[in-house]
Amino acid sequence: xxxxxxxxxxxxxxxxxxxxxxxxxxxxxxxxxxxxxxxxxxxxxxxxxxxxxxxxxxxxxxxxxxxxxxxxxxxxxxxxxxxxxxxxxxxxxxxxxxxxxxxxxxxxxxxxxxxxxxxxxxxxxxxxxxxxxxxxxxxxxxxxxxxxxxx
Length: 151
Hints:
Elements: H1 7-16, H2 26-33, H3 38-50, E1 69-75, H4 82-90, E2 95-100, E3 107-113, H5 119-130, E4 135-138
Antiparallel strand pairs: 1-3, 1-4, 2-3
């Protein structure tokens, strides 16, 4: 089997973006709905993660509802340092995800902390470790867009 997604993988990815059933064996229930068995579904998800076709598999929590906080951050990183700085940034447990942009602010990431008071110190630690300014763009209003990516 190739490392890329096949049609069954695509069906899995499309279906599981809608969530897993809340039951004692959610993978078994999801597998049945997809015409698979539980072991095959889990093995396919493990293969997709190992191949980095998916980078995470898990729930999204409302951090604010649990007392935590998120903040979108950006940095202007010299191109010749981009990979090294990405490694520094991604080494912080508060960094939820990181991505490159074709812009003067070419590195964007999300900080997730246990409280709003943790955002500024986390950004300061990243700035100190990288030697670059971390710009913070706090959420002013919540938008629920129902983001899905067709596989």
